Structure formats: structure tokens, C-alpha cells
Here is the input.
Amino acid sequence: MGSYFLESEIAFDADGRLIDAGYHDADTKAFEPRDLRGVFGTFATGVTVVSAMSVSGEVSGATANSFTSVSLDPPLVLVCFARDSRTLSAMRNSGRFAIQILAKGQEDVAWHFAGRPMTDGAPVLSGETERGVPCLEDALCVV
Here is the structure.
């Protein structure tokens, strides 16, 4: 895997409004998805499971390493999901969710909620937050 450098072309109008923010790599060579995944995979990040319950009572959870604290006051977080995510749908419908920060050694839990179900001892969202949102009982922290 080679080294890649991105150059940015950003243009503003006379009033300071952004009018163009195109990006291209320095060699005008497209990134190979496999190489890009390898590069992005070197960025250390925590792993969370986001859980929610739909208004009809269906419990769902999804692994997310795209969790970012945005603000403490008011408390805001950013989590990214696929548009067709059941967990996202449950969050939108109920307005409630829980974020479980996983501990070292919970890789199997992360993979389970990422769509690679465990065959034995599958984790269950059997705990409950103060607001009644299903959660993992053995997570490092539940928010």
C-alpha cells in the first residue's frame, strides 16, 4: 500500500461564502477501495453499540465506530448509520436510544451487532436504561 496525499481546492466568494470545495489526490490517481480501507483502518477509534426500541416494542442494536461527542452543553453526539438501518428507524420513531461503549475483549459483541451473529452465547440487550431503553448489561459504559 502506497502513501496518498489529498490536496484541497477551496474557493470562497467576496463575501466569504464557500463556493467550491472539490478534492482530488495529488497524483490524480483514484484510490483503490481496498487501499483506502487499509489507510482508514489505521485510525484508532472506540467501538459502540447503539440500541433502541421501536414504538411497537421491537428491540434493535447496531455497532458504530462513527460515534463522536459534539457538545457537552447541550449534550450532543454524532452517530452514522445506513439509511435502511432498523436501529436508526427505531431511534427516529421512539426518540430514544442508548450508546454502549464496549470494553477490550468485546470484539465478538461488536461483530454480532455489525451483522455477523455469534452462534453461541449471543449478546442480548437485556439491561435497561433509566428511560427504558434496552442495553447491554456488560458494556464498559452506557450513555
Q: What stands out?
A: The chain is about 15% helix and 30% strand. Confidence is low (pLDDT under 50) at residues 1-8. The first strand starts at residue 6 and ends at 12.
